[in-house]
Write a structure and sequence with these properties.
Length: 298
């Protein structure tokens, strides 16, 4: 801030008084007799002192005015700085208030976010529990349906096997009659039935008369395992495999132990029947019927 200039003091009256006093002192010195008396020395000294004081007074006044102006200027500048400090303090107070408001808003936002997070966590947990329950219900329902289908499949398979047993028994009865046309018709009917069930993967197997008894493939009516080396006399009921899995072993009749020659019931059967090869081994029939069953046709 520029310092204003102090008003000028008129110096010539003071300088004139100074000249007069100094001139008076000189006059007293030149007109007095030597040595000067004590009163003359005091008068001359007083004139010089007063003259010097009168010469210094205007400069002292100007200096005093300049000092006062400088102090006033500094006081004004200090007052302005204090005003600026007050303004700054007000700004700081306003900023502090705004920061407090921002902090409160942030706290509320944080609480809201925590509440939303907790709600989302709860919803996700409830949804996960619902999915697990629904999945468990679906699995239970599917297992129940699969069990029903398996029971139905097993029951259907048993019915078909029983029907095939009756058809085979009817065929054997026709063979025992010895009527070739009847045997041929029954053979064609049985072959058509076997071809039909073969489409779903069910294959029938017969034992060849004279073959050695194999407990893995054959069984006796009483369920007992015969002596090793026993020979098969004939097939009582066919064995079956379903899609390559065994369903029932071939039920066979065994030759008496004292019989040394083969007395096969197959001697009474025709050598060739349309659509059916009598006396095929169980292993060959299983190899032909099991792998060749088309799953898509089932």
């Amino acid at each position: 801030m520029p310092i204003p200039e102090a008003p000028r003091v008129t110096k010539w009256p003071f300088l004139l008084g100074d000249v007069l006093l100094v001139g008076l002192a000189g006059f007293l010195i030149f007109t007095a007799s030597w040595p000067l008396s004590r009163w003359e020395i005091l008068a001359v000294s007083a004139c010089f002192i007063l003259g010097a004081w009168m010469a210094i007074i205007p400069f002292l006044r100007e200096h005093t005015s300049a000092v006062k102006l400088w102090e006033q200027s500094n006081l004004a500048e200090a007052a302005q700085q204090l005003d600026r400090l007050v303004t700054l303090a007000n700004q700081i107070s306003a900023a502090t208030g705004e920061w407090q408001g921002i902090q409160e808003t942030a706290v509320r936002t944080h609480k809201t976010a925590e509440e939303v997070t907790q709600k989302m966590t709860g919803e996700a947990r409830a949804f996960s529990d619902f999915l697990q329950r629904h999945d468990a219900q679906e699995k239970a329902a599917l297992r129940l349906e699969i069990d029903k289908l398996r029971r139905t499949e097993g029951e259907t398979l048993q019915v078909i096997v029983h029907l095939q047993d009756h058809i085979y028994a009817l065929f054997l009865a026709g063979v025992r009659t010895g009527q070739s046309p009847l045997v041929q018709q029954l053979g064609q009917f049985r072959a058509a039935c076997l071809d039909t069930v073969r489409r779903i993967g069910l294959a029938a197997h017969e034992a060849r008369p004279g073959d050695e008894f194999d407990p893995k493939v054959h069984q006796t009516p009483d369920g007992k395992e015969p002596a090793p080396g026993s020979r098969i006399e004939g097939t009582i009921a066919c064995g079956y495999t379903y899609q390559g899995q065994p369903v029932r072993r071939i039920l066979v009749a065994l030759m008496p132990p004292e019989t040394t020659t083969t007395a096969s019931i197959a001697a009474a059967l025709p050598s060739e029947l349309p659509g059916l090869t009598a006396g095929a081994p169980a292993e060959e029939s299983a190899a032909e019927a099991g792998p060749e069953a088309d799953p898509e046709e089932v």
